[in-house]
Design goal:
With 396 residues, the chain is of the alpha/beta class. The protein has 2 domains: 3-98, NAD(P)-binding Rossmann-like Domain (Rossmann fold); 113-394, no CATH class. The protein is built from 12 helices and 21 strands. It has an 8-stranded mixed beta sheet with strand order 6-19-15-18-13-10-11-12, sandwiched between helices. A 4-stranded parallel beta sheet has the order 2-1-3-4. A 4-stranded mixed beta sheet has the order 8-7-16-17. Helix 10 packs across helix 12 (358-374) and helix 11 (324-344) crosses helix 12. The two termini are 47 Å apart.
Length: 396
């Protein structure tokens, strides 16, 4: 059995006797200065594809996840052969190398996607008039098997969950709830969209965007996510649970914005689909005001809006994970448009409660317009939906 040892720190020194010298073909470590600590052949990660080996044994448990992700994502190492020191002990005892834990690492396709490609070559899920989803091929692949540990991440991160009614709050430091609307007055602890610099009074008009405004003006996290109380991005490690911090941070090394899996409206343009769901009248009463609001910022953006409205694909739910600088850019573009619409749109009493949320529905579509406008690269993740008991399932 030929092995490569990754990591020459204290844990390697304490367990050096485990390794048979005839098995070791090379050692590597991020710190090249550690080359002096070993008599074995020392290589950099770039040289891995030049040698033959059966296993890579990562000596650090603390940073195993981070190292394993790097090997798979950056150096195209087969995830099945990257094991930790504890697992290597089982291998030495003659146990078959079978990874059958219900977890995985993920491989990111080298071809990055943009919103323009969404318009030109729609992929993701197919949606018909009854909103039934048929999953198509995704470029994030799930595999079974690697035991994962906790990684150390330097960037501050928060995925904010917008809620307007009680729900089973996630037991995770990665997620914080922002209570919006009338219910926000009932919560003395936690975040409410009526605190700090806020536009909480507009929640009935622009939905989760009052939470987005609060995040923009009051939070300082390096990486920010927006989820709903019953919709979360699916983890790529375990598709049945919400996405974790380390996954999002890893994905954002290779893409600009994480978005919800695209949907394709069978037989309808994005504009026609909005008319069908929100109502013909409310769309016609507001679309010219929307165009005026956009033109006041940049008339060129009107062409982007028309491109999106005539297309049949979109990223739904106004959900994202992105870096702070992109959040600043997005909100600086979005909110002047929304404020203009709030000032000039008349929400008619005879409209249905759903139609009265038309500004919020436009905001959801404006996120797509912004992605088209900027041409930022995106990574799609599936959405999982919670029931009121807090269990998870694929969105349908």
């Amino acid at each position: 059995m030929k092995i490569v040892i990754y990591g020459l720190g204290n844990k390697y020194k304490r367990n050096e006797a485990l390794f048979q010298s005839d098995d070791i073909v090379a050692v590597c470590d991020k710190d090249i200065a550690n080359k002096a600590l070993t008599s074995y052949r020392f290589i950099t990660l770039e040289k891995l594809n030049e040698i033959q080996y059966d296993l890579i044994v990562v000596t650090s448990s603390k940073y195993y996840l981070e190292i394993c992700s790097e090997l798979v994502l950056n150096y195209h190492v087969d995830w099945k052969i990257v094991i930790d020191l504890e697992y290597y002990k089982y291998v030495l005892n003659g146990e078959k190398l079978v990874k059958n834990w219900e977890k995985s690492v993920f491989f990111i396709n080298s071809n990055r996607k943009t919103a323009k490609q969404l318009i030109e070559l729609p992929k993701g899920c197919e949606i018909n008039s009854t909103m039934n989803r048929n999953p198509l091929r995704r470029d994030v692949f799930n595999c079974n098997g690697v035991w994962l540990n906790v990684s150390k991440l330097r960037r501050s991160y928060c995925n904010f969950v917008v809620a307007h009614k009680p729900y089973k709050v996630l037991n995770s430091e990665d997620y914080k709830t922002v209570w919006v609307g009338d219910i926000s007055t009932k919560f003395k602890n936690g975040i409410v969209d009526s605190s700090g610099d806020n536009i909480s009074k507009y929640n009935a008009l622009i939905n989760e965007c009052t939470a987005l405004y609060w995040i923009w003006k009051n939070d300082t996290s390096d990486i920010v996510g927006l989820s709903h109380y019953r919709r979360f991005f699916s983890s790529v490690v375990n598709p049945d649970i919400p996405v974790m911090k380390w996954e999002a941070c890893q994905l954002l090394k290779y893409t600009d914005v994480i978005v919800a899996e695209s949907v394709y409206h069978t037989g309808y343009s994005n504009l026609e689909q909005l008319r069908m769901t929100a109502g013909q009248e409310c769309v016609e009463e507001t679309i010219d005001i929307l165009k005026k609001a956009i033109s006041l910022q940049n008339e060129c953006d009107l062409m982007v809006l028309e491109t999106f409205l005539s297309a049949k694909s979109m990223y739904p739910c106004n959900m994202f994970i992105m870096r702070r600088k992109h959040l600043e850019e997005y909100c600086s573009w979005l909110f002047p448009i929304l404020f203009y619409m709030i000032e000039h749109v008349e929400i008619k009493k005879e409209w249905s409660p759903y139609s009265k949320r038309i500004l919020g529905f436009w905001a959801e579509r404006l996120f797509n317009v912004w992605l088209l406008k900027t041409n930022y690269t995106v990574k799609e993740l599936s959405i999982i939906q919670t029931d009121f008991n807090g269990s998870y399932g694929k969105d349908s």
